Amino acid sequence: MNAYPIPIREYIYKLRDLPEADKPREKMLSGGPGALSIVELVAVILNSGTVKEDVLSMSSRVIREYGEKSFASLDDPKKISEDIGMPIGKACQIVASSELGRRFYKKPGGRNVSIRNAKDVSAYVRDMHDLPKECLRGIYLNNHHKIVHDEVLSMGTLDANLIHPREVFKPAVEYGASAVILVHNHPSGVVTPSSSDIEITKQLVDAGKIMGISLVDHVVVGKGKYTSVPAIYE
């Protein structure tokens, strides 16, 4: 059975046909990396296409094949080259960028870090306090409050209709975690939980009870401040 199609933007124009200001590299220079789509960021990494395929088309195929969440875990250039018919050099560029992201994202101390309260969470995710977009992150703990896993779950404004419990608790099962802490940032620096934050938290608390995995906190951070979403304690 064929998989459902993933709605990745199709680029019908070649890079050379785009206005100068709309080309990925120029967009990054004028508006910063946040102004680029995922496909455009991949195009910057690849730098150029091939004689037969434009770089934007190639980038679009990569994301359609692997999905945005799986891109960061790509680690086999030979497989990428075979899967989508990409030159091995281009596949190596993708894997190198993914590996850099994984290495920079790793926290010093890793599994030796203990998280016991919202203050610990805020300190651990200090890199999130000044992000220009909302980011939802899951921190997964063992019985001794030690971190066993940590990953970004979504980017963009939180929406109860878009955050599925499966996406939150699947890593907990995979890594044998006993508890989950969610944390997301408010770019404005106002850390008062929104009604959507509270609704999402209540849904996930209930889902965690069914699965036997506790959602022990949901922390909102921004501009050096933090608070816990009250739904955890109601």
Question: Can you walk through the features of this model?
Answer:
The protein has helices at residues 24-31, 38-46, 55-66, 68-71, 77-84, 88-105, 118-124, 165-174, 195-211, and strands spanning 135-141, 147-155, 179-185, 214-222, 225-228. The protein is an alpha+beta fold and 234 residues long. The protein has 2 domains: 15-105; 110-233, Cytidine Deaminase, domain 2. It has a 5-stranded mixed β-sheet, sandwiched between helices. The protein is globular and about 60 Å long. The model is unreliable at 1-12 (pLDDT under 50).
Q: Would you kindly provide a brief summary of this structure?
A:
By secondary structure, the chain is α+β, with helices and mostly antiparallel strands.
Properties at a glance:
234 residues, 2 domains, alpha+beta, Cytidine Deaminase, domain 2, disordered N terminus
SSE topology sketch:
Layout: H1 24-31, H2 38-46, H3 55-66, H4 68-71, H5 77-84, H6 88-105, H7 118-124, E1 135-141, E2 147-155, H8 165-174, E3 179-185, H9 195-211, E4 214-222, E5 225-228
Parallel strand pairs: 3-4
Antiparallel strand pairs: 1-2, 1-3, 4-5
Helix pairs in contact: 2-3, 5-6
